[in-house]
Amino acid sequence: MAAQDSSLSPMMDQYLRMKQGLPEDVWLFFRLGDFYEMFFEDAVEASAVLGLTLTKRHTVPMCGVPFHSVEGYIGQAVKAGKRVAIAEQKGTPVPGKLVERELVQVVSAGTLADLALLNEAEHNYIVAVFREKSAWGLACVDHTTGEFSVAEFGSQEALAEEVSRVAPRELLVSDEQRDSFPLLRPTLFYDGYAFLPGAAVPVLEAHFQVHSLEGFGCAGLRAALGAAGAVLHYLKHQLRRSTEHLRKLALRPTEGVVLIDAASQRNLDLVDARGGAKFSLLGALDGTSSPMGARKLRDWVLHPVADVDVLRGRQDAVERFLGEPFLMSKLRDSLKGVRDLERLSSKLAQGAGNARDLMALGCSLGQVPAVEADLYVLAEGCPKLGDLCGRLGDFAGLVELLAGALADEPPVTIKEGGMIRDGYSAELDELRLASRDGKAWLAEMEARERAATGIDSLKIRFNNVFGYYIEVTRANYAKVPEHYHRKQTLANAERFVTEELKRMEGTILGADERSRQLEYELFCALREEVKGFLDAIQVSADALAEADVLLAFAESAQRHGYCRPELDCSRNLSIVNGRHPVIEQVQQGVPFVPNDSLMDEEGNRVLILTGPNMAGKSTYIRQVALIVLMAQIGSFVPAESARIGVVDRIFCRVGASDDLARGQSTFMVEMSETAMILNNATERSLVILDEIGRGTATFDGLSIAWAVAEHLHDELGSRTLFATHYHELVDLVHTHPAVSNWHVEVREWKDEIVFLRKVLPGPADKSYGIQVARLAGMPESIVSRAKEILTHLEMSSTRREPKARKRQKPGMPVAREAEVTQLELLWDEEE
Ligand code: ADP
Ligand code: MG
Q: Is 244 exposed, middle or buried (0-12, 13-18, 19+ CB in 10 A)?
């Protein structure tokens, strides 16, 4: 920043003072007439990032964007990691006088106010985290919807996982705790004072106008409240946002929620997938029709539930829908008419938005009675639907008010009139009449003047510079009467005014001006009216979102032939003819082959799945995890029948999966992710391991895989599905009673391999790698040479095998000795 300099113009002085009050990373968009201008380093940087032309004002670098397209540029700037402060002109500029300017707000990733810049199906969270002793606190605000919630965790890992599920646009850490969160990637270090619980609690109490935060159930959560105080402070003071629509502090559920860490979330393609969101579970399930429903479904997919009663409640609702196909489609139609109530109402309550937003709000709330009527019919004997009905609320008064007040097609602007319907305000009607009458009078005057002067082409017109005037073409100059005063001469015409016309102009323009002002006032009053309904609208929106999701579950169940899984608290699992919910939808041309699954506490707790490449191992083990997850969000599942003992966590690891973005070697990633499972899985967890150990030398990898499987079996007791190409692992069955072997069946046919996609008991007999290589188009010479080598290797390994096998008796309990022998076999092969 250039030093403040007395030679600078008063305007530059004003600019610099404003700029100095802002944090460094913020660009200042300084309103100058029809442009927002940037100066100095801001201009240099912004011109490059936003592709603007860099110019100079005196010696100062500058660039600007037109005011009408500012939103697009702000969006771009925020995407590039900047924040943008907006300074507007106050009042009308008077020549020769410095116009006053005001910093209206700072736009950040979490507060991109314009709906068009947001992905509707995702939340737009700002998160703050704070550590207080052994508690790790988190506060989470979606400024666009008014959601405000907190949670506390016992470890940084747990906190980091929740943060990764929330996927905040901005992450605030206290500038006094810069180094306390190595697992997180903060976007901003914010004023440490704002985080202090001692300061934050009174601020929060004042904000919510309560004497204690007891009512929100979070009075004792000092770490979380510190974070909450900081987010609020940040919104209010640094971003200068209205926070009135943040009405309550919710406690994020941490108990009874199935934890799915970030890596598992990725490996299971829950909300996103390599080929795009369509290939994710969310993509396969999403049939919601409102943005609120889409966000709710996403939340559910990332936060499954372990509470069997809650889940049965949701299942009952889905079943009721399925029993009434007619009501289902009626309900879907009503829900389609509901727009983003959460964001609309929040926007309006902040004093933003236009008449179209009000209209959208009114129309959306207008759907509530229809939704309620249908739900009411279904609610008997179904507490979940009864509860939704009860939360929908009654907005008849507001809907009627808005319908009566707003014009059919209100404009985008709020200061140009045209928003309010005739008949809503007597005063407005009168002004409009005066203006309309005046215009009729002008038409009458035009006819009168034509007759009086004999000029048939005489016209009365209006423009912004001269107001109303009489226009006469050059050919008729001679006929212009005395009392016409010349105003302007054009190439082919002259423009005149008369005393009479001037007088009428005053009446018409005065009426227009007054009616525009009045419309604006009426609009603001309506917007204010919405504020009073904000709480109720938010509750209703949440219920509508839930109804939307449950209905989508019913529709998926119907369309794809899902069944209602039975849930219990056992540690068993049985699925008959299960399918992979995503692959069965996206794979074209090939029918999906269903498979059974059976897990229990005795002989089938750790399933080792072998089979050649491409057989369908990865698909199968993920299918089991996804079916469990679907069951634990209340959805029906792709199977003929299923009985599932609910799980507390789901882990999914894939061998040697790249994570270049985090700059770690693939093997390192694989190992640290696996370590995380071993440290966190319980006997209630479901663990999916796909080719663990693949990222290193064969014997390293095999040994690690082996030890991991043993640990899961002996120590953790988690239900585990382990797909592996380390055929050696099938021997675990002899020494570990809860291990069982499964394989994906293939057939050989004239030296070709046919994939049957059937999962059957017992280990695979061989790996068929060479056949798969041939399928992949490997040259015939390589294929036959590989076969030769294989035969040779197999002969030399069978010669040694008996030594390992002879001391094992199938089905015997764990024998330390046998294990040692198996490992010896490996070691001596490596020598
Ligand atoms: P593996 O892990 O054994 O190498 P994958 O699970 O990746 O095999 O499956 C390979 C391909 O086979 C998948 O991409 C899918 O197209 C197909 N596939 C897998 N399971 C089935 C099934 N049950 N029915 C039909 N196609 C399947
Ligand atoms: Mg695989």
A: middle
